[in-house]
Amino acid sequence: MNQSKNAQARWQGVVQLGLALALVLASGQSYAKNVIFFLGDGMGISTVTAARIYAGQTAGATGEEYSLAFEEFPHLALIKTYNTDAQVPDSAGTITALTTGEKTRIGVLGINGTVARDDCAAALQNTLPTLAELAEQAGMGTGVVSTARITHATPAGAYAHTPNRNWESSATTPDDAQALGCQDIASQLVAMPFGDGIDVILGGGRREFMPTEMSDPEYPNKQGARDDGRNLIDEWLAADSNRRYAWNGDTIAQWLAAPEPLSGQLMGLFEPSHMQYEADRARDPGKEPSLRDMTALAVKQLSAKKEGYFLLVEAGRIDHAHHFSNAFRALGDTVALSEAVQWVVDNVDLSETLILVTADHSHTMTISGYPRRGNPILGTVEMEPGKPMLDATGKPYTTLSYANGPGYRKQRPDLSDVDTQARNFQQLGTVPMQAETHAGEDVAAFATGANATAVRGVMEQNRLFNVMYDALFEQ
Ligand SMILES: [Zn+2]
Fold this sequence. Notes:
The chain has one domain (32-364, 437-473): Alkaline Phosphatase, subunit A. Helices cover 30% and strands 17% of the residues. The protein is built from 14 helices and 17 strands. The strands form 4 sheets. A 10-stranded mixed beta sheet has the order 5-6-4-3-7-1-8-16-2-17, sandwiched between helices. β5 (244-246), α10 (249-257) and β6 form a beta-alpha-beta unit. α2 (45-58) crosses α13 (327-347). The longest helix has 24 residues, at 3-26. It is globular, with a radius of gyration of 22 Å. Zinc ion binds at residues 42, 91, 319, 323, 438.
């Protein structure tokens, strides 16, 4: 198949998808179900295992026998995560596979694999409809929640179409691309041309919506990032008088405490860039909400939608902590994800809701050596308490380490007097790299509720789109 024929076939695939949806709508029957899609960014299987042990040990147990909330789900698959042009993927290509049903290239969002990176003209001709757009078209509710910037790759995968994931604001989108009609990601969020747009938006990334002339409400010495003078928060509010905006946790606590869902759409942007790691959240000046509270608020709001809803919840910073070779924060954010999942399990009707938990890709963290049962997961390897096992050079080593990353040391350090469980400790990496990288082995998908039985075996990542699509529209 040549390139244009290939594009044609893809376009037809898109038309058929729209047709199937039109048939569902025309039938007059209500097939609507809810989908809550949790994504742990970079939450590979070793991360799940280590976080399980960490959570158990934090609760005073040995840890290995503990279960995170989603590990109790009855349906499970291994997911092949590669992008069309990359053996080891990134978050943009993978979220596109998950939200549109088509694998695509590394670094692009909501467009098919025929488009080269940065090719705005081709991107405009090769967009793929996302689950959130389809849900909005069908009159359903939609929500996007993330601890990363809400314009970062994973959350943007719900609503954006762009040949470069870094085009988050006008400042990072080339002028010639803007002239051709390629909007930056923040602009696409506030002007989503389907239904009435995303109903619940909660995350970080305020600066991408604010002009450089404007100071941040939480950190007055920081400015907005937009170089086009636009204030997208004000524009979003002005377009509908029922919309509400919050930048701090106190407002979210008030919204959560309301006895009934609030009327109108909500936007909460709690940091100029990414939100805090869970380990650091208590020190946040704006008292930013937990992933669990953001999820609870979104579910509460969306539950009022009679036609059902699609909600994407990302624990976005598991990935960032891993890139920094900091297992402490990666595990803390994974446990925070588990707490958000547990809230949903306790509060939604599984007969009409699919809960899917997966990762977009893995990281290079390994769990190794022969630590004894109950040995601290962030500690050095010990068979007997207080007696570290030694490597070939006579030095202790940690259970967790990375194949590469900033934890590389020219000289193998002596960890005898180092607290490897401290929050800022960087686990060792074998290959020196400024940022630790993603890893290419399969990730897991955990499912429960409506249509969860479709999650089984070894699956291509884009097939999880069909699992969610069928739960929303076909049952
Ligand atoms: Zn990453």
